[in-house]
Amino acid sequence: MAGKFITFEGGEGAGKSTQAALLKKRLGGMGIGVLLTREPGGSLGAEIIRHVLLSGAAKRFGPNAEALLFAAARADHLDTVIRPALQAGQWVICDRFLDSTRAYQGIVGKVDLAFIKGLEKLTVGASKPDLTFILDLPAEIGLARAHARRGDGATDRFETEDLAYHRALNAAFRAIASEEKQRCVLIDAKEPQERVAAEILQIVCKRLHPETAPLTVEDIAR
Ligand code: T5A
Q1: Could you tell me the distance, in angstroms and rounded to a whole number, from the CA of residue 10 to the centre of ligand 1?
Q2: What are phi and psi of 182, to 5 degrees?
Q3: Bond preceding residue 138 cis, omega within 30 of 0
Q4: 67 and 116 in contact (C-beta within 8 Å)?
Q5: Residue of the nearest CA to atom 51 in ligand 1?
Q6: Phi, psi of 38 (to 5 degrees)
Q7: Which residue minimizes the CA distance to atom 16 of ligand 1?
Q8: Which of 77, 147, 170, 196 is the most buried (most CB within 10 A)?
Q9: In terms of residue numbers, what domain contains 60?
Q10: Could you tell me if the CB of 93 is within 6 A of ligand 1?
Q11: Rounded to whole angstroms, what are the CA distances from 208 to 6, 21, 81, 89, 162?
């Protein structure tokens, strides 16, 4: 039986990596085999493209070229990592996926959305996520969290954009969540991380693993 595909999306520092790792741990504890991966990257070829993108080396070629590079990385990641794992029955949790391209390059970067959808069709095709969590957090809080986590480390290509850019990104992600209610769930990421994790696990169980006894957020957080 094919595995389930879950993605985490949202602005900078919203807690995607934290929640992806917590969900992997919780599902593992339920006996489900889980592959945790990320974008851009997650495969050998895609990690090389990640470096080109996040170092800012591709910025001078403009958002269309960046969208093409994200799509090329995604194609390799899907072909060599995600689809084989799903076919083998593993669940796949991916930290960022197609909605990041829609939000960063499409809605905020002003790349033609028909072009973005064309790239999606070519690379993702039928391999859309079963469930996407969009972590919603005011940009100021997210950037402060990302800054605190980074310490003295260098900022990447997108973190260096101004506050207005990051607010626009949050609005873009909220718009995506309301356009695709079947697939996307908007999560209030201001709550403490264990509380957010409990809400996410409850939704995963209800939608993708209904054989689990119904759980309240309080049961899980306990
Ligand atoms: N990109 C990516 C595109 O433009 N297009 C695309 O198609 C794709 C796929 C990737 C960059 O590439 C862009 C978007 C990005 O700019 P990245 O280095 O992979 O960059 O990192 P991001 O995905 O941006 O990760 P973030 O820096 O945004 O962080 P996360 O994963 O959202 O947050 P996380 O979990 O690391 O948490 C940040 C800090 O907050 C704490 C954590 O402990 C950590 O210290 N934290 C909390 N604190 C309080 N309360 C909570 N509930 C907390 N949850 C976490």
Answers
A1: 8
A2: -65, -40
A3: no
A4: yes
A5: 193
A6: -150, 165
A7: 158
A8: 77
A9: 5-221
A10: no
A11: 10, 18, 21, 14, 38
Our answer on whether the CB atom of 98 is closer than 6 Å to any ligand 1 atom is no
* Digit-coded pLDDT (tens) for 89-139: 999 999 999 999 999 999 999 999 999 999 999 999 999 999 999 999 999
Counted domains in the chain: 1
Ligand 1 site, residue 9, Cβ cutoff 6 A: no
For residues 203 and 212, give the distance between their C-alpha atoms in angstroms, rounded to a whole number: 11
pTM over 0.85: yes
Determine the residue of 8, 16, 18 to mutate for testing ligand 1's pocket, defined as the one with the most ligand atoms within 8 A of the Cβ atom. Answer: 18
Q: Is the CB of 17 under 6 A from ligand 1?
A: yes
- State whether the beta carbon of 66 lies less than 6 angstroms from ligand 1: no
CATH of the domain at 204: 3.40.50.300
pLDDT tens-place string over residues 139-171: 999 999 999 988 877 788 788 889 999 999 999
How far is residue 184's CA from residue 89's CA, in Å, rounded to a whole number?
A: 22
Nearest to 188 by CA among 68, 88, 177, 179: 177
Adjacency order of strands within the sheet including 131-136: 34-38, 91-95, 5-10, 131-136, 184-188
d(CA 93, CA 91): 7
